[in-house]
Amino acid sequence: MRCRWPVVFLVLALGLSPSGAAAGAKSDTIQVRVKPQATLIGGSVEVSVQISCAPFGEAFESNITVTQDNQAIFAQRFLPAVQCDRKWHTVTVVASPFDGSFHRGPAFASAFVSRVDPGTGEERQGQDVRTIRVR
Q1: Which of 10, 29, 68, 115 has the fewest CB atoms within 10 Å, counting from its CB?
Q2: What are the tens digits of pLDDT across the range 63-108?
């Protein structure tokens, strides 16, 4: 029988469990996904974000920023809080630019969600940054 110590050592060094999942990966992190398509409504964009989190603390900060034309067109909007039950929840908001108007084509979106334990001050957060398509 051949010894597989190098493989075992590599798995342990990378912090992986035998199933391949990272041992240090927290199931209690906040996961955020900006949907790749947005809808143009007048000069604003309707954008959707998926959020999944484990039960923890209370909502602290949740927002999405959308920019276009090298940040010449800029909008920021608060995201509504979602229930943290380890399920994916989709929230949709309309982001209106501070100046100018969005148009069809590529845009840049960044969504950020954080929760805090008011007793300990511990904070958990998640974010997604991507190019989206405004239609």
Answers
A1: 10
A2: 999 999 999 999 999 999 999 999 999 999 999 999 999 999 999 9
pTM above 0.85, yes or no: no
**Residue closest to 107 by CA, chosen among 77, 68, 75:** 68
User: Partners of 130 in the beta sheet?
Assistant: 109
Burial 18-32 (b: 16+ CB within 10 A, else e): eeeeeeeeeeeebeb
CA atoms within 13 A on the CB side of 13: 6
Cα dihedral sign for 94, 99, 103, 107?
Answer: negative
DSSP 10: H
